[in-house]
Amino acid sequence: MATFDTGTTGFMLLATSLVMLMTPGLAFFYGGLAGKKNILGIMIQSFVSMGITTIMWYLCGYSLCFSGDALGGIIGNLDKACLHGVDLNTPFPGNTKMPEFVFFAYQMMFAIITPALITGAFVNRITFKSYLVFLVMWQVLVYYPFAHMVWGGGLLAKWGVLDFAGGIVVHATAGFAALASVIYVGKRKDTDSPPNSIPLIAIGTGLLWFGWYGFNAGSELDVDAVTGLAFVNTDVAASFAAITWLAIEWTLVKKPKFVGLLTGAVAGLATITPAAGYVTLPSAIMIGIASGIVCYVAVHFKNKRGWDDALDVWGVHGIGGCLGTILLGVFATKTMNAHGADGLMYGNPTFFVHQLIAVVGTCIYGFVFTYGMLTVINLFTPVKVGEEDEEKGLDAALHGEQAYDAGVI
């Protein structure tokens, strides 16, 4: 019987639990932002990912991300499908202090939340059946390749691209998939659909922020100084981004908006994600401030363009993930993490260029494949709901349920 380090294994199980909690947190966040007729319709899309993605991860997802190398480093192979060859005594190759089972579970939580992020963009416009097909296809064609290319030793990893916890793999792919989805399904008939519950948004933000410590600090896959660095950088960047967003909105609209503060925090969390374990604390502060400014501008640019990204997935997650990955190319330093790189500020323009090219490629790939995928799905089952169902609300029309008793909200 193999002996593993109980501290490392215990910490990684805790981090896994924290990342798992982010998916219900996302459901609450989106559920609060949605209109009152579409609360359950958006929340079920997050929760169903927990089931479908777990099944896929066991059958083939883990293996395609973290086993072997195929198609020039774009995807893995099926050697570890159904955890073939992995037992209680199998150590995780990246850190033999913990069993591979734990790494399998930790990465599964990332796979669960990533497609769920996209759902906020097309709230109350797509059928549940088409979403389930999309959930399966998007992971196979978008998430698994990028997880392998960046974290599984694939093409981008070999090229020297870094992504500590998911700026490319999670946020850029999901954000630009969201933009493609919005353009494909078009605008809502009723765009005047204010958030039904700001307290619910606050609960969701709190759970996301709490879970993000596991998301970022856990991505060190060990318990050491870099783990602590990632934890602190995460909190600091989120805080500075939240206050920056609040200050901008207060200045422009003359009122301090609670939803703006919460949105700014999530933007800061998304933006620091790729850089959390590679940059200094002062750099994390600058990344947080930049996030508050750039993501705020992105959301307003989206509004001017008329893109009906209902819950600002592109502006917050897509742009945040891209910005963080590019700024990692600027601020990264080996003095913080010997396994990282030196960025532009530390005399390495090559790393910055690689990060920039990787971001551009990710955005194009995520957008094109998502748009094409929706087009194909629509050939077999309608993607967009009918006007009558949209008017009625998806809670009643598709699910036959309602979030609150009549008259409560």
Give a summary of the structure in a few sentences.
Helices cover 67% and strands 2% of the residues. The protein is built from 14 helices and 2 strands, in the order H-H-E-E-H-H-H-H-H-H-H-H-H-H-H-H. Strand 1 and strand 2 (95-99) form a beta hairpin.
Structure description:
The protein is mainly α and 409 residues long. The chain has one domain (6-392): Ammonium transporter AmtB like domains (Ammonium transporter fold, Orthogonal Bundle), CATH 1.10.3430.10. Helix content is 67%, strand content 2%. A hairpin with a 2-residue loop joins strand 1 and strand 2 (95-99). It is globular and about 55 Å long.
Layout: helices, strands, pairs:
Elements lengths: L5 H28 L5 H28 L24 E2 L2 E5 H19 L9 H24 L3 H4 L8 H19 L12 H20 L7 H29 L4 H15 L8 H25 L7 H19 L17 H32 L6 H6 L1 H6 L10
Antiparallel strand pairs: 1-2
